[in-house]
Structure formats: structure tokens, C-alpha cells
Amino acid sequence: MHGPSGKVSVGEIAFIANVRQDKLPTGMEPLLEAIGTYEPTISGGVFAYGTHAVVVAVDPDSGVVELLDYVVAEDCGTMINPMIVDGQVQGGIAQGIGTALYEEIPYDELGQPLATTFGDYMVPCAPEIPDVRLAHLISPATATEYGVKGLGEGGAIAPPAAIANAVADAFRSIRASFNETPLTPRRVSEAVDAARHTKDAAA
Amino acid sequence: MKSAPFDYVRPRTVAEASALLAQAGVNAAAIAGGQSLVPMLNLRVAQVDLLVDLSRLDELKAVGETSENLQIGALTTHAAIEDGMIPDPFGGLMRRVASTISYRAVRNYGTIGGSIALADPAADWTGCLIALGAVVRIGGRNGAREQAVEDFVQGTYSTSLGPGEVILGFDVPRSDAPLRCGFAKVARKSGAFANSIAYVVVQGRGGLVTVVLAAAAPRPIVLAGAARHLASGVDSEDALRAAVADDLKTYLPDADPYETRLHISTVVRAARDMRTQT
After folding, report:
1. Cβ contacts of residue B183 below 8 Å, gap of 6+?
2. Per the omega criterion (within 30 degrees of 0), is the bond before A182 cis?
3. Which one of A8, A148, B100, B244 is most buried, by most CB atoms within 10 A?
4. Average model confidence (pLDDT) across chain B
5. Percent of chain A scored above 90 by pLDDT?
6. A128 touches chain B (CB under 8 A)
7. How sure is the predictor about B163, in pLDDT bands with cuts at 50, 70 and 90?
8. Would an 8 Å CB–CB cutoff place B266 in contact with chain A?
9. CB A30: neighbour CB atoms within 10 A?
């Protein structure tokens, strides 16, 4: 560090601040610490926008849902590190696919939890996650430094709605409705079966 | 969780292994790949005094072909079958079945003998070997014996294996006529226990047909009506569905409507799969 009356090394500053506090100028707090805070002028939150589109294949009898293609377009403003943005969206989608198709803590009629290990609590693993195609729109936020927006939740929130809507679209002709996640094979098959019976009864 | 304490021994001969497994007053278990047994020990679903490691028994590693049989040593791993390290004169059925077992890390260690010995209702090999008409070769201090896999597997985690007996391997009969084999499996996700597995094996044109449904009951079920329908040559999926539904009424009277739809769909998909194998 160079000043008007001489120079001192960073190492020497650290040594004095931590070990030889007697050498500090009078009134100066010991230790090296700096805290800064930042809040955008809009305090209500600055968040990303995103759209998820998914193509599924559903077996109406077994109720198995397969994800054939998954596309996300999102806008988190200025991307500071695009690689981390991609990773965060991908990871969020994996969580969202878990919500949509796998993860559940059911209880039996006596209140015993039925998913107590990862053998019973289904978490999607790499084979369950499709290669997600990502597109980025960049409209910088006006109220933040560098035009950045929050990003974390976008990937995780949309998949249950996108996947359930895709499954519903597959059975549009018989008006089957899918209103409960996760969309387990049993739930999907039962919803299709119920809709078929309703259709048969109406016919 | 971790396993309760146990002793461990790695014998060099089948006779030695047999004697260790048959000791009075010692709850001993054979271990090969350990991909089911070790998690069961860790969850304390199983508890043993002594693990007898079969992995160094060369007699259990032999793989060979005769004009009549494919001989598969009990210690053959799922991965070795998946990778085509052993012959598969069954239209690639065994390779394809192997490739869907759990995860690759499990397939690297897990063995076909261990899978049959455990007799988990959701296992992949029990139904497959029954569909192929395989025979299990068993050794031990009381001499050797053979038994059809269909009779060997008796129920959930239950086989005819007696004290001190060890599975040596399997003889899978070869067919003179070309085999057409189909297979379909439903599991909640990769690596999860299967909910339904169907195998269809057809010997030549108009030949013997075997249909086996696994993961549906304590032991795999041979579906006679579905086999009769497929042997009849009538190419109707609706008729096949009806035949499977009739079979299920006989063999699985307690199946709920979803299970019935699920099992019918795996059999129909296995039959479709068989038709694509020319």
C-alpha cells in the first residue's frame, strides 16, 4: 500500500491487524473485516421469467410417463456467469421433475410414514433427467446493478405444471384430468381409466 | 445404518464353503456380489453370524456351450452378460435383461447366481431363466443335484437351497429352432424394484411359447392362457389382452384393477418386442 508518507506491505498490515494490535493507530478497531450491503431500488424482488415446454410419451395402461424432449426459455437479465446459469436451471428442472413424477412422503392409515429411506423416497437420478435444451433472453433489469435478476426458482417451479399439462394433452380426447403430483404410474393409469369409464357411460 | 458385527471367511473350494455354511448353531450366509445382501445387512433386514464369500470359487465361474446347453457359472456378473462376455443364443434376451438391472455399478458386482439364490420377487433373472427353461446346478456336502429354476424358486426370498448347498451355475437349453424373445419391464425409476416384468419366448414358427410374468407375485408366474393365444398364431392384441386377463384371474385373483392393467400392458409389450426380433 502506497500512501503520501511511505509504503507498507499487505502482509505487514495483516500482521499488525491480527497479532500486533498495539501498533494500530489510536482508535482503530483490530482485525481486518469489511461488510457491504446492496439492495436494489425496487425492494419487492427482481425475478427471472421462464417458459417450459415438454413432450411426453404416456402408456395409458401402465401409466408410465417418459420425457421425450424438454425446452426452457428463460430471462434472468444479464448473465454474470452463463455456465452457472445453465447449471442452476438444469438442477432446478431435476428438482421439478422429482416433484412432478417421483417425490412423495405417503403415510398409511395409522400415520406411519411409508417413505423412510431413499429406497422408498424416489428421487430422480441422472437416467431420469432428459437433456434439457436451454434458450436465454437477456433483458437487463433496470433497478439492479449490472441488470441482474434472481434465477434460482425458475427451473424448479414450472416442471410439475408443464409435465402434467403435457400428460393431460395426451388424453385430451377423453378429457382425463391429472390433479395430483407426483404423477405416479398408478395415478396416471387410474385417471385415464376413470375418464374412459366416464366416456363409456356418456356414450 | 451399518451392519451388526459378523465374521467373514473366503473358502477356496465348494466343499469348504459347504461345510462352513452348514455349521450347526451358526447363522451363516453365502455372499457373492453382495449387491442385495450388504444393503440388507446394513438396514438390518438381515443379520448373520458368518459371511461365506463365494467369490474365489473357480467352479462357480465356468461358462461354456454344448450342443444342448449354455452353461453359466453362478458368479457371472450382470455386467459380463450385458457386455456380451458370454454367449447369448437367445436372441440377445439375456443381454437386454442384464442391461436393465439396477445401475451399472450394481451390475459390475451383482451375480446371476446371487440373484436366483436371493429369490427377490422383483428380480430380473428368476423370470428370465424360467422363461428360458433353465436348470440350476447345485453342489454341497451331500453331493450335486439339478432342478428346474421354476421349481427351485419357491416364494419371496425362498428357494429349495438346503443347508450347506451352493448354486454352481445354470444350464440354459438351446433350441434347434431360432428363438424369438420379448421382454418388457416397468419400474418407478432406474434402479428401483420392478412393479411388473414380462418375458415371451417363442421357439421357431408355430413352436413352443412360454410367457412368464415376474415382480407380480412372490414367485414368477407362467401364463398358460397367454402362451396358448400366442401359439395359436392369431395376431390380435385384443385377444392377447383377454387371454392375459383370464390368466390373471386364475393366478393373481387379488390383483387390483391397476395391477391388472399394468401386467396386461407389460405382457402385450413383451409380445410386441418378441415380434420385432426376427
Report:
1. B93, B96, B97, B128, B197, B198, B199, B200, B270, B273
2. yes
3. B244
4. 95
5. 66
6. yes
7. very high
8. yes
9. 13
Domain extent listing, chain B: 7-52, 59-173, 179-276
Report domain A49-202's class: alpha beta
**Which residue in A63, A128, A184 is closest to B190 by CB distance?**
A128
Strand, helix or coil for residue B87: coil
User: Who among A122, A190, A193 is closest to B192 (CB)?
Assistant: A122
Other CB atoms within 10 Å distance of the CB of residue B43: 13
Residue at B31: amino acid letter:
I
State the ipTM, two decimals: 0.88
Q: Does residue B220 contact residue B213 with C-beta atoms inside 8 Å?
A: yes
pLDDT in tens, A12-51: 999 998 999 888 888 888 888 889 888 887 777 788 889 9
CA distance A187 to chain B (A): 9
CA-based nearest distance B101→chain A, Å = 13
| Inter-chain CB proximity B258 and A189 less than 8 Å | yes
Q: In whole angstroms, what is the distance from residue B257 CA to residue B247 CA?
A: 14
Every domain of chain A with CATH number 3.30.365.10 lies at: 49-202
- Please indicate if any CB of chain A lies within 8 Å of the CB of B191: yes
Cα-based distances in Å from B206 to B132, B232, B234, B236? 17, 8, 11, 16
- Tell me which residue of A122, A11, A118, A36 sits closest to B195, measured CA to CA: A122
- Check A193 against B262: CB less than 8 A apart: no
User: What number of CA atoms fall less than 13 Å from residue B27's CA on the CB side?
Assistant: 7
What CATH number has the domain spanning B179-276? 3.30.390.50
Top-level class of domain B59-173: alpha beta
Distance from CA of B96 to the nearest CA of A (A): 17
Flag whether residue A121 sits within 8 Å of chain B, measured between CB atoms: no
Cα distance between residue A36 and residue B5, in whole Å = 55
pLDDT per residue, tens digit, chain A (203 aa), is 888 888 989 999 999 989 998 888 888 888 888 898 888 877 777 888 899 999 999 999 999 999 999 999 999 999 999 999 999 999 999 999 999 999 999 999 999 999 988 888 999 999 999 999 999 999 999 888 899 988 877 788 999 999 999 999 999 999 999 999 999 999 999 999 999 998 787 76
- CATH 3.30.43 matches B7-52: yes
Cα-Cα-Cα-Cα torsion B47, B194, B201, B128, nearest 10 degrees, comes to: -20
Nearest-CA distance from A66 to chain B in Å? 10
Q: What dihedral do alpha carbons A59, A69, A100, A151 form, nearest 10°?
A: 180
B148 forms beta bridges with: B135
